[in-house]
Design brief:
By secondary structure, this protein is an alpha+beta fold. Helix content is about 25%, strand content about 40%.
Amino acid sequence: MKKIIACLCCAVALTQPVFAAESAEVSVPVLSQSEKSIYRLLDEWSQAWRSQSINQYLSFYASSFTPEHGLSLAQWRAQRQQRFFAADFVQIQIVNPKIIQLHGENASVQFTQNYRSSLLQDQTVKTLQLVMEAGQWKIARETTASQR
């Protein structure tokens, strides 16, 4: 028999074999409020993307967000809107998210992102640099690298 524990804020399932003669206790890491908030941000951000809710999706980005590849913020927003509305569907899977840095009002989280839409399919390693803005974590920068 297996005991399954699900962490709703980051969609990570831990499994631990449980035998009748053993205690049913499983050691689960205790997360700080900041860590919980970061994992919740990932979950809600990916849900907004999956539901193709452009305004909700953009709300996860800091006012100081710096796009990759030299785009201005206005160019990046226009590109995101065009991509959102061009796809008939979007599927996003965040795999193995890890907070790699958390210091005060700055954090970084890295994960494998499986992306599939009616137009494109890819797998990348994504790093989000986060800042605390008005009491909430926001994405200040994101970088991607191809999965090999």
